[in-house]
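Q: Convert this sequence to structure tokens.
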Amino acid sequence: MHQLSGLDATFINVETNSAPTHISSLSIYDQSTAPGGLVTFKGILSNIESRLHLADCFRRRLVEVPLGVDHPYWIEDPDFDLEFHVRHIALPKPGDWRQLCIQVARLHARPLDRGKPLWEMYVIEGLDGVEGMPPGSFALFTKVHHAAIDGVSGVEITAALHDLTPEGHAMPPEREWIAESPPSVVELALRSAVNNVRQPLRFFRLLGQATPPAIRVLLERRDRGDEDAPREIPRTRFNRKVSPHRVFEARTFRLSDVKQIRKSVPGSTVNDVMLAVCSGALRRYLEKHRELPLESLSAFAPISTRTEAQQGTAGNQVSGMFVRLHTDEGDPIERLRKIHRTTVSSKEITAAVGARSMTDVTQTLPGALAGISGRLIARTGLMSRMRPIANCVVSNVPGPQIPLYFTGARMVASYGLGLPMAGIGLFHAILSYNGAISVCVTSCRDQMPDPAFYADCVDASFRALREAAVA
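A:
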């Protein structure tokens, strides 16, 4: 039995039916590379079953503490059933990109069953009309609760399920898997009492260590007249209450083009360029709807704090920074230059506080306090009525730059879906794979009824930035 960390438990506490807190991935495969040129559903089940031991989240089930007075626990599910989690569906003809996006958005909108290990996988056939995909391609849509993984550990799970060659190789477990019986109410109550007494002292010590450096950096930025010093965030359509409905879209670009663009602003990174692309898309979209604020919009950008020793472990090891997107700047290169300056400035605060310290503070709140406050914020819709802390999320997760194979089929495209929340209903997942990089957009259908138009704005923003960089 293993207790969730404070950060992992947060994703359980703030979850509602309108805002489930799982993350998803969509991968498309060319089955012509598989032995015999065909992948069967039975073969997929067999392949996954042989790799269950490579990721803890596959067979771990959640056990919640009565009344939510402490963080939940993971146990090895004694009733694990692989065929409950892996499902087989097909798109109706013509099976085009729009149909795939709609189907994926519907699947992503549904909360996971908390009585089972918190993941689902859908094999989707009938992609004959998806432009640019090989004939006979199929997709794999995977949902995993954010309490079990973050973006980096999600990539590690992808690596566990895939091979570097079509033939693959066997990976036998080092030890036998043993199921666990759920703990009794008395045992959970005793553990909770001890944990809630122990945690507050460490919480206040960490808070005391983190606060002085943060104040020092903020004062220095104020004294030098820093344009990127914290200021009020304007409210947009994406800072309202979210509905239970989701939309998904994506656009893919060449990673080599992104690396060429970053040369136009010395010191800038791939992440800076993709922030600029998202910024330009937001500017175009809101301008078209006559809703673009005069002030700059802001994004929350997660930062992995996973150490080398934590590689291969599940759960969340993540902090983050707030980045001004400079949507008030019309020139694409100047916008990239300002965003680069902003990310450097934001990293100063993260470095001063310590990314690990920011994560550790969430780990040390008493479970009872964390659970009550999380559920209160989520169920009263408080976040959607408060002053916005950011207008969107931009999460950049680097992926492998070599071809991967699943049950012999070569992965030809990879996308990600995030979690729109009350108060921040727009999520950009940036994923790179095998020389390509994708901007994947997840949002609330009420807030973004026209996802294809937003995807066109992403495409236009990238082209404008590339043309300006070349010029």
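Confidence is low (pLDDT under 50) at residues 209-219, 352-362.
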